[in-house]
Amino acid sequence: MERPPNKRLGRIAEQRDVSGQTCMALTATCRWKEELIITDEEGRAFTFDCGWGATPLMAYVPPAAEWRTCVPPWLHERRAEVVDAMRAANHVVKDGPYPRLLEE
To answer: 23 lies in which domain range?
Structure first.
């Protein structure tokens, strides 16, 4: 039996340009305790691992040196935004091991 998704609302990490205007943003949504889904403005999503039962909430991201090999192309230049979105969803963010994505 599949567990229902977490009912928490997604949190939006706003980005501001140099004039202070809000521009593109990513959304972080919890699904169960061990997954945090980052969704972009076009509805594309990628799931990041979280610590099971950790207090405070803990999210893991690929280390900066490995980032581009572990996330889809639409996230390649958005690591800082992903981390901001995770923090906006009340997660502590730590580098952790991630598998490399397969070439399409």
So the answer is: 11-95
